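Re: the request from the purification team.
They wanted to know what the chain is likely to look like in 3D before they choose a buffer screen. I agreed to run a prediction and write the result into the notebook, where they can find it.
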Amino acid sequence: MCSSSRRTRETIALVSENAEWSDVKINFEDSLYLARTETALGVIRAAPQSIESLLLVGHQPWTGAVASRLLGGDTIEVPTACFIGIRLDLDDWSFAGSNPGSLVMHVLPRSLD
């Protein structure tokens, strides 16, 4: 799920191309453009149960706040072009943020070539 802004559309296009994701469906969400934390969490919680993995592409400050919330309140650095992977032990997306997830990936742009 991706904010509908031009910059995030460009970002997800580059990521999709470089990751060779030819069969991934991207939903562009207007509500993620100037989202509040609860709005972004609502997008996650509304995800269909058939989805096993979810990628959100968005903007600060909500990206950092959502990551923190999904990690049980731990603060995490989320600069522009950062990728964070969080494993959530859920049976239903509607419970996202109820229990702390675990950080499985934190890629800062300065670590990339």
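For the purification team: The first helix runs from residue 6 to 19.
Please add any questions underneath this entry.
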